[in-house]
UniProtKB/TrEMBL annotation:
Lineage: Bacteria, Bacillati, Actinomycetota, Acidimicrobiia, Acidimicrobiales
One GO MF term attached to the UniProt entry: phosphatase activity
Stored Pfam families: Hydrolase_6 (PF13344), Hydrolase_like (PF13242)
Gene3D superfamilies in the record: HAD superfamily/HAD-like (3.40.50.1000)
UniProt xrefs under InterPro entries: HAD-like_sf, HAD-SF_hydro_IIA, HAD_sf
Record-given protein name: HAD-superfamily hydrolase, subfamily IIA
Entry GO CC: cytoplasm
Record keywords: Hydrolase
Amino acid sequence: MRWLIDLDGVVWRSSTLIEGSDRAIRRIRDRGDDLRFVTNNSTLTVEAYVAKLRSLGIDADANEILTSALAARLALGSDQRVLAIGEEGLTSVVAEGNTLVRPTSLEDAEKVDAVVMGWHRGFTWDLLAQACVAIRAGARFLATNRDPTYPLERLVVPGTGALVASLVASTSVEPTYCGKPDWPMVELVRPHLGATSTIMVGDRLTTDGAFARALEIPFALAASGIAEHDDGTTPVAVRAADLLGVVTAIDADPTILHAH
């Protein structure tokens, strides 16, 4: 069996480990199961995600990390002049095969081939204006994900979707979304599906649940992250308070995965 596990809101909230998630992952590995960490957060590099997991007592390898930045690169292609609005996890990936540009003027922004936007805690009006001009001049517009919010330890702050909304409002152009549940992440993850069965564990029905539906695999909802209204349209095979609860429920009755 293979597990696809979200990070923010399932394994941790910001830099704080969600209680029991380390034990849950050890139990998954002790079962002999494989896993992949699938995140819409594009701020960190794959290597940084591995280091963060290990610092929290969770063993991980680079080939187990799948990010929305990698999905964005898949959708973007290569040999383009790219205005990447994001942190190192996005810019370092987009730079592979493309040229990162920082326009020196708004007129210079008209020469950009593509704008790729991720979560960026240094987002400014200047970046917004440059991206707006580039997109209005015909640049492709890609965004790492739709997530409107991001969970900190106690609070919730604006996510990538909130930043993207400012560009949509100023350009009237909808981006190609690249993270869960959209097609670039589906294409990135599909080769990693298990030969027998795979389950997606996440805290958001609208992203993780919809992603599981796109992959035609069961979805387990861990209620340790972002609380969303459940309108009943997303099938949920397992509901639990957290990742450890999900693993415990499946260990107790593995047949629940085959009933959905």
